[in-house]
Design a protein that fits this description.
16% of the residues lie in helices and 0% in strands. It has helices at 15-20, 55-59.
């Protein structure tokens, strides 16, 4: 591992925009047809999943897809 850059000044191409307040954040960009995802994991770390009943979730209003593995 090289440490040549540690402690050295770095030129930031977006530095001026950030300090003057004109830089935009990803949260400010509008993305058409954007969907949200939710990861659900087991509350029991050592249990074994024997089945996944996703039909009720798929039937909910606004749910586009349920992915399992």
């Amino acid at each position: 591992m090289t440490t040549a850059h540690i402690g050295q000044p770095t030129s930031r191409v977006d530095g001026r925009a950030k300090v003057t307040g004109v830089a935009t954040d990803a949260a400010e960009d509008h993305v058409p047809d954007l969907v949200d995802g939710v990861v659900v994991s087991s509350a029991m770390a050592t249990d074994t999943i024997t089945r996944i009943a996703a039909a009720d979730t798929r039937a909910r209003d606004g749910v586009l897809q349920v992915f399992t593995h």
